[in-house]
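A further point concerns the way the authors explain their paired sequence and structure data. Nothing conveys this as quickly as seeing an actual entry. An entry of this sort, consisting of the sequence and the corresponding backbone structure tokens, reads as follows:
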Amino acid sequence: MFNKEISKLKIALTSRCTMECTHCFVNKRGRETISMNDAANGLDLFLGSPGPNKILEIYGGEPLTEFELLKEITALAGHKARKLRRRLVISVASNGALLTEKHADYFRKNGIAFSLSFSGTRESHNSVRKFAGGQGSYDAVVKKFPLLFAKLKNNLHVIFCVHPESAANAYEDFKRLAELGFRNIGIECVHGFPWRGKNYSDFARSMEKITDYVRQKMYSGDFIILNAFMDFFKEKSYAGAFCPFFRDFEMFPDGAFSFYPYAFIRDNRQRKRIAVGNASSGLLKKYLECKPLAGSPACADCLSSYYCLPGLADGSRAYRLRTQICRQALKDIIALSMKKPAAKKYVKYLIKIFKKGCA
């Protein structure tokens, strides 16, 4: 029995994709796709770990290129979760270009959340999210918005990745996402590219503007969820949440187990060095025997020995900046909730969404 709680598992369904995003290191030419046997083994490890609440995220590549396999895996996950009496939330992360009404109907019928990878303004989106021929994908994806909002609005999330080169424009990109109608926004920071001093300062200023924008919208009764706010509630609710197994556990098309941001390592030899196991043979022995204890030398050594390669470290300071600024903003809002009705309603709304497990 695995002794550590895995609250979230990300399965990279396939390396196939319709785009060639400049910040993505997935080997699309390899066209790897996960086997059902490997997927089943990963689900057993994930759902069999301690803890009643589980989140399964399916991504790629582009998971809609393997829609029948996606349906098979999500159905199996639901069956296993019911058998083990786990409360399971499933989400699918996609670039949106292939989305059809058939896909949207399946997700809605089965209560599967849809996470759209989108970068805000046309300029920022087209600078990184390109089709194989180099053409920007903004217009192709925006055409899908009426379908997205009509079918999936209550289970719709947007993944907003900030590249260091666009850090100064992050506020304008975020504001554009809100103007387009998105109300559940996760801010991610691109790994594998160098973040320099100016990038960090630009990003910090953008994040301050973003949290202020969210606060001003709150006063008008327009509630925008920042994914980092949900992390605050997770930390309050779970012991041992610092352990990468808790919410950074991932599985790849070749069956490898690892932690985010493993996918941003470019060298296959280095990937093998930091994999924590695979679906056929299971986890490495050292991870089976340890027990997470915040602040312990063993945990500190484990974390530092894993996050030792450039692709794993790049972007981590940007994440800390994002988290610190969002955490302080939420603390301020919670303090305001004692005297401001709008803030009180907003905090109650965040707690409601957190308990649903949809953010």
Notes: The longest strand covers residues 87-94. The chain is about 50% helix and 15% strand. Residues 197-219 form the longest helix (23 residues).
